[in-house]
Amino acid sequence: MTLQRRHWLALSILGLALAASVTSLGNGFAYDDQAIIVGNAQAHSLAGLWHRFLEPYWPPDRGSGLYRPLTIILFALQWAVGGGTPLVFHLVNVLLYGALALLVFQLALQLLPEPSAWAAAALFAVHPVHVEAVANGVGQAELTTALAVVAAALLYIRWRTAAPSQPLSAPQAAGLCLLYLVACFGKEHGVVLPALLLLAELVSVEDPSPGRERLRRLAPFFIVLAFVGVGYLAVRARILSTIPSDIQALSLQPLTAMQRGMTALALVPEWLRLLFWPVHLQADYAPLETRMMTAFEPIVALGALLLVALAILAVRRPGAKGVVLFAAGWITLALLPVSNLLVVSGQILAERTMMLASVGAVLVISQLLRLAERPAWASRVVVALLLAGGLAVSALRQPVWASDESLITRTAADAPRSYWAQWMYGDWLFTHGQPAEGERHMRLAVQLYPDNPYILRILAGRYQDNGFCPAAVPLYQRTLALRPAWWEVRLRLADCLLAEGRQPDAAEVIRTGIALGENVKQLIEYQNQRLSARDSTRTPLPR
User: Fold this and answer.
1) What pTM did the predictor assign?
2) What is the mean pLDDT of residues 438-460?
C-alpha cells in the first residue's frame, strides 16, 4: 500500500474518533470533576507547578488520596487557558482521544496486515466503553496514561523489529523510561508498562538470537525500567504514606484475598461483555449491580471457564506475530491493577478503567475476523455494522455526562440495583425540592445495601433535621452496630432519644461510648450538660 493511502486510512480513523466523541464538547463539569477540577485550588494555579509532584491527587477535604501529579498539572494549564470553562477540558479530551486512536493504528500495523490494523483501530475509535473516560473531565488521566503506554509499546516493537540482534540504544531506552514516568504520573495503572513490553518481547518480536544472548542484551534495559517503577512507587508511598492510597470500596473491605479472587472471576463475564459487546453502559457498578463473592457460586466457575477459553484461543490460534496471544496478555495485564486482586481500590468496576484493556480487545476482534475471511466481504460487513453501532452508542452516550443532573438521573435508570446510584439520585432529589421522592430512593438504597453506615447515618440525619426522630433512631442504631466508634453518631442518637423523652436510653448510649473509649471528652461534656440538664428539668426537649 502507498504511503498516501495509509495517510487516508489514518485520517478516517481520526474522523471516526472525533465523530464518536465530539458530542461531549457541550458537557459541563460532572461528578468527580467537581472535586478534582472545580473545587481544587491545585488545579487552578500555575504557580509552583512542580509542587504537584509532592502532593496527593485528591484535595485535603476529600481525603488526600491517590497520586497523579501530571494530571493535575494538565488541569492547571487548561484552567489557565480557558479561565475555568469546561469546553477547554473536553476539547483536550477529544484531541487526546483522536491521537490515541492513531497510535493504536500504528501499533496494530506492527502486528497485523494493513486492512486488519485499520479495522482494529477503527473499532477502538468508536468503542463505547471509552465514553466515560472521554466525556468526563477527570477521564483525562486514563487518556494520558493510555497514550504513554501505547506509544511505548509501539516504539519498543518497532525498534526491536528493526534491529532484533541489537540492544536498545541509550536514547531509545531513555525515551521509553520517560514514557513510563508519564504513564505512572498520569494514573497508577501505568505501572504495568514493563510487563507489557516484556510480553511484546516474548510474543511479538522475532529475534533469532539464542535465549541467553537475548537475555544478556535486554536485561540492562528492563532492570533500569524496573528501578524507575520502584522509584515511582517509593515516591508515591512517601507522599501518601501507603501504596494503595485510595479509599477502599466498603463492600470490598471485609473480603479475604480468596473472596476478592472469586469476585474478580465473577466479573470476567462483565469485563468481556464491556470489551466485546458494550451495548449497555452504566456509570456505577456498586452492589447489587455487582455481587461480592463470599462463597463459591456458578458465576465464579463461568468466569474461570471464560478465562481458560481465552487462553486456549490465544495459544492454539495465536496468529501471525502472536497477535492473539499478545492481545490476551495485554487485556490481562491492563485489568490486573483495577481487579482488586493486588490492592483494594475504591471501585469494584468502572468503565473508564477499561480503556487500556480495550486495545487488546480490538486486536483480538480484528484477528478473529481475519481468520474468518470466508468470504472476505462477510468480514467487511461485520466490521461496518460494528462501526456503525459503536459510533451511534458512543455519540449518543457522551451527553449523559453533561452535568450532575443528567448523569445521576440516567445512572439510577441504567443501574437500578446499584445502591449507590439510587442513593445519589435520592440525595439529588432531596436537594432539589423533592423530599418525598428523594426519601423513597434513599430508602431503596438502604434496602439494597443495608451494611453501609455512611448512607444510614446521612438518611438518619435527614429525618432528624426534619423532626422525624422515630424514623432516625433505628437508622442511627444500625449505624453504631456497624461502626461502634462513631462518636458523632452517638451524640445525634442521644439527641433523638432525648427528644422522644427516652432519657435512660440516651444515657446508656453515651455511657457505652465512654466505655468503648471513643471521643471521651465530647461524650462526658454531653453527659454533664445535656443529660444532667434533662435530669434537673424533667421537661422534654422540643420535637
Assistant:
1) 0.91
2) 93
